[in-house]
């Protein structure tokens, strides 16, 4: 993979590109964590099997929702505004259709734990596919979102809570310097919910992975799993 792009713009500010690439950071981070955790299960540590099954469900839901949002909103809007991106966006959309069956296979595979043969294979295939897919998005599409620096206000308190939980997941392992700029972009109702959401996510990490240790990445690629 080519050099990962910085999460922040060249002027040090955050943008919608930052927010989406933080999700990419989260997907890469969690696939690495799944691989490590499944290896531990293979070696006989089954103490977190139930938590791993539950976390897979969350991961696949987040990834599928991310792709739905791109297919229904981000990609059509960009394709209409920037027709030259049409071929790239068509390829990315086709990738989403390749990913969906892998997620379905993952549901079956994680249900078989502590047998890890199928789940480890799904994680490895998903990582290979996403590595290329995310890199194309970051190189070809997201530079056009660097000027968008306002996060849309949530329509309700419940939606603000949902967004806060998403940012807590995506920001785990992201540099505080990046998060300072992201927070400056977020509506107050969302920003006010982030501390509690981040605390809850750290507790979730302890339960699933056995640690809430995180890196301090400034790019879309985590520096720690």
3D architecture notes:
The protein is an all-alpha fold. It folds into 2 domains: 13-149, Four Helix Bundle (Hemerythrin (Met), subunit A) (Up-down Bundle); 151-213, no CATH class. It is built from 8 helices and no strands. The protein has helices spanning 16-42, 49-81, 86-111, 117-141, 157-171, 176-185, 188-191, 194-209. It is globular and about 50 Å long. The two termini are 18 Å apart.
What is the CATH class name of the largest domain?
A: Mainly Alpha
Q: What is the C-alpha radius of gyration, as a whole number of Å?
A: 17 Å
Distance between the termini: 18 Å
Name the poorly predicted regions. none
Which CATH architecture of the largest domain would you pick? Up-down Bundle
Number of domains: 2
**Number of beta-strand segments:** 0
In percent, how much strand structure appears in the residues? under 5%
CATH topology of the largest domain: Four Helix Bundle (Hemerythrin (Met), subunit A)
Which key terms come to mind for this protein?
225 residues; mainly alpha; Four Helix Bundle (Hemerythrin (Met), subunit A); 2 domains; 69% helix
Give the SSE map:
Layout: H1 16-42, H2 49-81, H3 86-111, H4 117-141, H5 157-171, H6 176-185, H7 188-191, H8 194-209
Helix pairs in contact: 1-2, 1-4, 1-5, 2-3, 3-4, 5-8
């Amino acid at each position: 993979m080519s050099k990962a792009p910085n999460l922040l713009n060249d002027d040090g500010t955050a943008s919608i590109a930052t927010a989406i690439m933080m999700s990419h950071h989260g997907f890469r981070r969690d696939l690495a964590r799944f691989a490590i955790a499944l290896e531990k299960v293979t070696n006989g540590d089954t103490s977190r099997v139930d938590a791993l099954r539950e976390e897979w469900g969350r991961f696949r839901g987040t990834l599928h929702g991310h792709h739905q949002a791109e297919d229904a909103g981000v990609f059509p809007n960009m394709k209409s505004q920037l027709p030259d991106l049409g071929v790239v966006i068509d390829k990315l959309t086709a990738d989403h259709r390749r990913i969906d069956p892998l997620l379905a296979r993952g549901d079956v595979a994680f249900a078989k734990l502590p047998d890890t043969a199928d789940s480890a294979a799904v994680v490895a295939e998903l990582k290979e596919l996403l590595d290329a897919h995310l890199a194309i998005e970051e190189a070809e599409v997201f530079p056009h979102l660097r000027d968008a620096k306002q996060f849309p206000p949530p329509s309700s308190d419940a939606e603000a809570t949902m967004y806060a939980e998403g940012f807590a997941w995506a920001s785990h392992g992201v540099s505080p310097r990046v998060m300072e700029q992201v927070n400056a972009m977020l509506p107050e109702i969302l920003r006010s919910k982030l501390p509690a959401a981040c605390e809850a996510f750290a507790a979730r990490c302890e339960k699933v992975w056995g640690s809430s240790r995180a890196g301090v990445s400034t790019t879309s690629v985590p520096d720690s799993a």
